[in-house]
Amino acid sequence: MAASSSLSSSSAPMELFPPKSKITKWPRYSICCHNKVSFIKPSYLKSLHPPNSRFLSINTSSKKRILQRDAFQFHCRVLEIEGAPSFSVGQKFQLDDIIEAQQFDRDILNALFEVTHEMENIEKNSPGNQILKGYLMATLFYEPSTRTRLSFESAMRRLGGEVLTTENAREFSSAAKGETLEDTIRTIEGYSDIIVMRHFESGAARRAAATAGIPIINAGDGPGQHPTQALLDIYTIGREVGKLDGIKVGLVGDLANGRTVRSLAYLLAKYKDVKIYFVAPDVVKMKDDIKDYLTSKGVEWEESADLVEVASKCDVVYQTRIQKERFGERIDLYEKARGKYIVNQDILKVMPRHAVVMHPLPRLDEITVDVDADPRAAYFRQAKYGLYIRMALLKLLLVGW
């Protein structure tokens, strides 16, 4: 997509371009310092908070600006970019369910990130918001979760909605009695307005969506996909690195079983001039379906056994845990893979100053704890961004743009 930009740099902590009289599109400005971004919206802009209505008139003529921060962490820049058309306030969301990363195109991603910025403002400045008052979300998790389940539940409550939850549905729901997934979904949709589901089988979310008459959000289906994690990962990269086109990303660790890296690869393919490095032990290398997909989309990728070399080139080092639970009885293979690639001070020494370390968490020993103090360690900020992305998705699926 074509873009025009104007760039100003300054060592001062805050510097903005004032709105120009000839601008007729919606401008937005970003002030960027030390990994923090503030957004200032002129008072004449319409609010992105829609009324509590599912269907309103559609107007796709308005435009938005997508702002980025400079990659150099300790220098402030203002970057103004003309982007894709915004979706009109109140317009129905284009997706009925969130099942896989491939559902999102760049226009939807850009507009979603605009709403995500609004959710940041709500969380920080508007406690007691009631956008989703009267709506009820059910979280149905057949596998353990901390960040995904709690961030979805927090997101719903921060927007005024209510939550029904089960943490271990595999053991404490009727699934333990042999009930089919389809019957469980048919029952729960009678109690709620939206279902967030994590399951141990790849493809389970698609089965649930085919059954349900309400929105289904895939919160991870076995080794398949984790689309909301990929969305927050892309959002994190944009916020931390300052761009999504022209980046180099190293995906490290359990790439065979990692649904997060699979989903992220699909989204990275939406952007221009991206290069992906795969760094993994032999027993958990990235599968051919992802490689073939990237090749079909013209995305350059490379496999490497040298994490130090890859880290020296990348804007993002995305580390993942070797997933013991995916190895079954082959503990010997798990032990062979574990500990082969570790992000530590030696990796930080070769990384560019603007680069970041990401991790979907939880971590074990694949990132040493002394990395946490480095400003390039973005994984806990990444987890917080997940709250905002999930607030935005719940709002869009239940009430629209």
UniProtKB/TrEMBL annotation:
Its EC number is 2.1.3.2. GO terms for molecular function: amino acid binding; aspartate carbamoyltransferase activity. The keyword Plastid applies. Pfam families: OTCace, OTCace_N. It comes from the Eukaryota. It is found in: Plastid, Chloroplast. Signal peptide: none annotated. It catalyses: carbamoyl phosphate + L-aspartate = N-carbamoyl-L-aspartate + phosphate + H(+). Residues 97-237 form the Aspartate/ornithine carbamoyltransferase carbamoyl-P binding domain. Belongs to the aspartate/ornithine carbamoyltransferase superfamily. ATCase family. Homotrimer. Catalyzes the condensation of carbamoyl phosphate and aspartate to form carbamoyl aspartate and inorganic phosphate, the committed step in the de novo pyrimidine nucleotide biosynthesis pathway. This is aspartate carbamoyltransferase.
